[in-house]
Write a structure and sequence with these properties.
Mean pLDDT: 86
Largest sheet: 2 strands, antiparallel
Number of helices: 3
Structural class: mainly alpha
Strand content: under 5%
Order of helices and strands: HHEEH
Distance between the termini: 81 Å
Number of strands: 2
Radius of gyration: 28 Å
Shape: elongated
Length: 90
Amino acid sequence: MQNLLQDLRYAVRMLRRSPSFTAVAMLSLAFSIGVNTAVFSVINNLALRELNVGDPDSLVSLHRPRPNGGAESNFAAPFFEELRRPIFLR
């Protein structure tokens, strides 16, 4: 514990000797913490929160195959209406 206090006193003494370095270091830390908080808030709101729907287990993701491989999740309204029609198999 004594070494920690001695190290802290030394650090404060060194920071007082170079106020410009101290200011740049403090501004850099403040900016980094602010950006980190903002990015986390965006990610938390977009990806980590649960959806506000009645039954989240009933949600589906629609994809159709592309001719060259892969899948496409955006398509025109007529195609979506065609998917909504009930299909009855005999």
